Amino acid sequence: MTRSKPRIAALLAAWNGMTWLPAQLDSILGQEEVAVTVTVFVSVDQSTDGTEDWLGEQAAGDSRLVLLPGGRFGSAALNFYRLIRDVDFAAFDFVSLADQDDVWLAGKLRRAVDWLERRDADGYSGNVIAFWPDGREMPVDKAQPQVAADFVFEAAGPGCTYVLRNRLAVALQVFLDAQVTPGGGVFAHDWLIYAFARARGFRWMIDSQPHMRYRQHASNQTGVNAGLRAFIKRATMVGSGWAFEQAAIVARVVGTDALPPISAWLGGGRRGLIRLSLHARQCRRRRRDQLLFFASC
What we know:
The chain is an alpha/beta fold. The protein has helices spanning about 20-30, 50-60, 75-85, 110-120, 150-155, 165-175, 190-200, 225-240, 240-255, 260-265, 270-275, 280-285, 285-295; strands at about 5-15, 35-45, 65, 95-100, 105, 125, 130, 135-140, 165, 205, 210-215.
């Protein structure tokens, strides 16, 4: 049972983020209508723009900000895996993920905590409002109903919306600590976290109401799937076999590789892909993506 004023650990992965970090930290630490206590743990991938020095100065003057020793990680996923493994969650009721370049709307954490408590759920994610430097904005909808095996093939939305109940965060921490290769080689941390939660029977909720502005810029490691360029990039990932290879790694890492229709796909070569195509409705949440999945198989 959570405290009357829940305590939240926000895990923020940073790299050359001086352009965006001040606004993002303000939006996290300055949340309105949020009856929670937030501590931000920051891990900085070796940077060249003064990110670590600036964060060190901020942490020296604000006990709500904790800067972990720096390191070289090479990707956002590896940086987040480090945060999950190294932060002690014992004093916290919930764990939230945060990117360095977004802007949280007022009440983001309160909304997530309310959803998790009222539904007795373990994992929360939500829709976002993507925005670009030229002023364009676009809602991003990831809140379609979950299906049997969607977690093997996609995340539950942007990882920067994720909030985990302590029991899920601790289980994930133990899971990552046991791995020789952090994340088992899964490229996207948000994909792995969602897959782990679903595979282990934790309850996950996807909120249709956006509570975050999702910044799009040239340095995004993984941005929103909008426009021809983004479509071509993702089509190339699928066509090259990379996306299916990652899905296979996810299935094996979280232990769902023996379940149908996954086992038939992994051990069946081309015939396995044909069998998998017949289960497209169980593999992706959005109707459009189900059709594309069928065609890709």
